[in-house]
Amino acid sequence: MPRATTVDCPGCPPLRALTFDALGLIKVIEARGKGGGGVPKVVDRWGDPDASKGLVAASLIDRKIDPLLAVARKNGVIEILNPLNGELFFSVSDLSNDGVRPEDNAIVGLHLFRKQRLELASRSCILLACRTKGNASIKTIGMADTKAGSGAPKTWNVCASGNISFSEVDGSESYALFGGKGVEVNMWDLEQCTKIWTAKPPPPNSLGIFTPTWFTSATFLSKDDHRKVVAGTNNHQVRLYDLSAQRRPVISFDFRENPIKAVAEDPDGHTIYIGNGSGDLASVDIRTGKLLGCFLGKCSGSIRSIARHPELPVIASCGLDSYLRIWDIGTRQLLSSVFLKQHLSKVVFDTNFAEEEVKHDVADTATLDALSIDETVGETEKPPTKRKKSSSKENKEGKKKKKASSKEKDGTKKLKSKKDDFADGQVSDLEYTL
């Protein structure tokens, strides 16, 4: 059974998170309790353990009405689920016909479009999928049809050579970002499926050494502006690109000595969170490249995913040490952690849970207050004379019970005397006969 470590952890506010691991399991973690002292626990698990169905990418539409969860597996299957109960709506195979095994050309990026879903029918969705070899596609899929999608998909190749490591979509869902090993960070217009920008590698250093291109993760710095991009590299560098300024990075700095594996943005538009292959997690002000501080308590494995809660001041991280950790972004203190047994690949927040939990707690406290008020009023309205009468009645009843018991005892005595007399009579008769 999963266990929660609470040593030196004050607990976290009410929240709900979904984790995805290498065995294809989706685990639901919830922290309940008012006042920020909740301990996250595993409340549900979806799927069966199967290494061939390991989860490699996920995307969540987090809305109060009709939420959706899309997950991509190693075998090339994309599943659309209900994030509330794990119900499988349908699955689609996204295998290519080029003879490459699904493991060698796995899906590295998946995105469910939110705005287009509002315009479509309630039983349809649009998703973007990108594979390791650079095959990207946008498909419109009807939930009623489990075999094929509705409408011709848009397909294109985002790289001529190399391997793609990630794909990200901006807040307006009009632009997508791609990059990887041997592939410079590039941006595409999703409406026209055309490349609009490509990064230029930094010049060689003073010794004439040129570092090869290897991007591991990236994110848009702001949801409202697609022109600023932050990317992490395999040679422990963090780079800030501004499309309106130049193709080379505006700011570039090193973080420790291990590859950057995860990058996440903060809603303030200038703070980022980075995690590397040795388990270091830190926050950086990207405007100046200044390290704001490292989070207390180092992870024991490579960090593979960082998620920022859009409402609560917390972030979640997970990776190869099989732990989900919740951190406070203000104090950079570990709030709580949960051991989930398998290597974790991604974590996402379900923000609707916190609102429902808080409302539920408020309603419970209101009903408890009302009940306590009613109880106190009822106690003050009872006159003391009634208690005396009840006590006198109890005394009378007790006396009646005593009298009844005494009568029963007298009856038993009379019966015993009669028996004794009868016994004496029998003895006298026997003596007479003898």
Automatic annotation (TrEMBL):
One Pfam family linked to the record = WD40
User: Where is the segment annotated Disordered?
Assistant: 374-420
From start to end residue, where is composition biased (Basic and acidic residues)? 405-420
Q: Check the record and name the InterPro entries matching this protein.
A: Quinoprotein_ADH-like_sf, WD40/YVTN_repeat-like_dom_sf, WD40_repeat_CS, WD40_rpt, WDR74/Nsa1
* Positions of WD repeats: 296-337
User: Any stretches that span the bilayer, and where are they?
Assistant: none
Keywords in alphabetical order: Repeat, WD repeat
Task: Tell me which CDD domains the record gives.
Answer: WDR74
Q: Under which name does UniProt file this protein?
A: Transducin/WD40 repeat-like superfamily protein
Q: Which organism is it from?
A: Hibiscus sabdariffa (roselle)
